[in-house]
Amino acid sequence: MALSWKLKSFEALSAAELYDLLRLRSEVFVVEQNCIFLDMDDKDQYCYHLLGYKGDLLAAYTRIVPKGVSYPEYPSIGRVVTSPQARGEGLGKELMEESKQRLFQLYGESPIKIGAQLYLKQFYESLGFEQCGDVYDEDGIDHIPMLRK
């Protein structure tokens, strides 16, 4: 089953969509990765949210971050997550390609900077991102800055 994509500003999200995305982010980033952190970081209100539904299941999600919110000079793609119930279907790559295209539609073609979990370095390199700085700790998980030019 193909994903049904929705791109919405924070204000346009329905209560159910907001619940779905916060639940998925908590399920993966807090519970599955055993990482206690405050997911609601006061950036969501400035971002667009890309939701990929498989029926009623939010199977894939990113937030598309405008320049100046996470990085002064670059837009970004963050909170990249796929549902544990939909893993192994190649959704990560599809999600990032869709996110990149939507970012370009919103902000024009430009370099994209992300903060990637270190263990996903090869995955992001396969999508054209290159490491552009040193490893840093974010909430107990090694991350690296990456740039897609």
In brief:
Helices cover 27% and strands 32% of the residues. It has 3 helices and 8 strands; from the N terminus they run E-H-E-E-E-H-E-H-E-E-E.
3D structure, described in words:
This protein is of the alpha+beta class. The protein has helices at 15-32, 91-107, 121-125, and strands at residues 4-9, 48-54, 57-65, 76-82, 112-117, 130-131, 136-138, 141-148. The chain has a four-stranded antiparallel β-sheet with strand order 1-2-3-4, with helices on both faces. Strands 5, 6, 7 and 8 form a four-stranded antiparallel β-sheet that branches. It starts with a strand and ends with a strand. 25% of the residues are buried. The model has no long low-confidence stretch (mean pLDDT 96).
Biggest beta sheet attributes: 4 strands, antiparallel
Mean pLDDT, rounded to whole units?
96
CATH architecture: 3-Layer(aba) Sandwich
* Series of secondary-structure elements, N-terminal to C-terminal: EHEEEHEHEEE
* Approximate shape: globular
| Structural class assignment | alpha+beta
CATH class value: Alpha Beta
Instruction: Provide the low-confidence segments as ranges.
Output: none
Sheet with the most strands: spatial strand order: 1-2-3-4
What count of domains describes the coordinates?
1
CATH homologous superfamily label? Gcn5-related N-acetyltransferase (GNAT)
Q: How many H/I helical runs?
A: 3
How much beta, percentage-wise?
A: 25-35%
Distance between the termini: 32 Å
